[in-house]
Structures are given as C-alpha cells and as structure tokens.
Amino acid sequence: MHGSERREQIIRQIQESKAPVSGTKLASFYNVSRQVIVQDIALIRAAGYEIISTNRGYILNQPTTVCRIFKVQHTDEQLEEELNTIVDLGGCVDNVMIHHRVYGKMEAELVLNSRRKVGAFMEDIRSGKSSPLKNITSNYHYHKVSADSEETLDLIEQELRKKGFLVEERRQVV
Q: Domain end: 42, 60, 78, which one?
C-alpha cells in the first residue's frame, strides 16, 4: 500500500470512529512504525484536515455548521428584509461579496446572526457611515450564509427565491 492510500484510509478511519484512534493502533493496523503515522498525520493536516491529537488518540474536528453562497439582487429598500429573512430562518450572514470588472472580487465580513445585529448594520448604512457594496454592481452581490444544517439553508434559499431576491446561481462551500 502506498502512503497516499494509507493516508486516505487513515482519514476515513478517524472520521468514522466514535472514539479517538490511537497512533499505536493505526501503526499496528497498517504495519508501519508509529513515526510513519505521525508523519502521515502531519501530511493530512497540511492537506487541510483538522486532526486533533488527544492523550487517547486522534480525532477529526468537523465543522458544526454548513455554508452556502447565495447570489442575490435587491434594492436598498429591500436590504433589511433580505438580511432579516436569512437570520429569522436560523442563518448567519457571514459576508457580502461582489465581482467587480476592474477590481475583481471584493468582500466584507458581516457576521449578522440576529435582528439586533441586522438593525445595527442598517443604522450604519442609514447614517451614511457606509454604503452597500451591491451598489457598485447593479445590486448584484453574494452572501456566504452559514447555518446548523442543509435543511436550514434549503429553507433560506426557498424564502429568498419566493421573495424574488435569489439569482439562480448556487455554489457549495466546503
């Protein structure tokens, strides 16, 4: 078995295990030294997996939220309704993004997960402290929205579509 195959199996084994998986157990299972397993774990981490070492073995830190990017369009008057629609259904508006023809991708972090935060954001907009990025791109923009489940994101998508905000283009974020 090649190292890359072993690392794929190690990832699966740690993902599927209900308890931490010890390095000694992995070394024995794959008939390699404990040091080889330590090196494999380092390579797995470098590939983007968040493997945590505990005193009982390795565990995978898996995200408790899921994300989706929605392409939307609306007027300034509909901005608060759009944001409240998302947070009322259990979503968090993580950011706003636009694709500018000259400057490329522009992004601003929002982290709006309640009506109170939406209200504070809207107050900043109304007071002239800032203006929405969407104004640069004929009201088209993207929001990365996180939630506790795909079902919640599906509900948000349905409601945005129903209200006419959703532009039919969806991308998954892993």
A: 60
Say if residue 99 carries a ligand binding annotation. Answer: no
Amino acid in position 147: A
Other CB atoms within 10 Å distance of the CB of residue 16: 9
100 marked as part of a ligand binding site: no
Mean pLDDT across 74-88? 96
Q: What is the pLDDT of residues 50-74, one digit of tens each?
A: 999 999 999 998 777 889 999 999 9
150 is in an annotated binding site: no
Structure tokens at 81: 């309704």
Radius of gyration for the alpha carbons in the chain, expressed in angstroms and rounded: 22
Its pTM stands at 0.62
Judgement on whether residues 105 and 151 belong to the same structural domain of the protein: yes
| φ, ψ for residue 3, nearest 5 deg | -60, -40
For the four alpha carbons of 172, 145, 156 and 104, in that order, the dihedral sign comes to: negative
143 a known binding residue? yes
Domain encompassing residue 73: 66-173
**For 139-156, what is each residue's pLDDT tens digit?**
889 999 999 888 999 999
Alpha-carbon gap, residue 69 to 168, rounded angstroms: 11
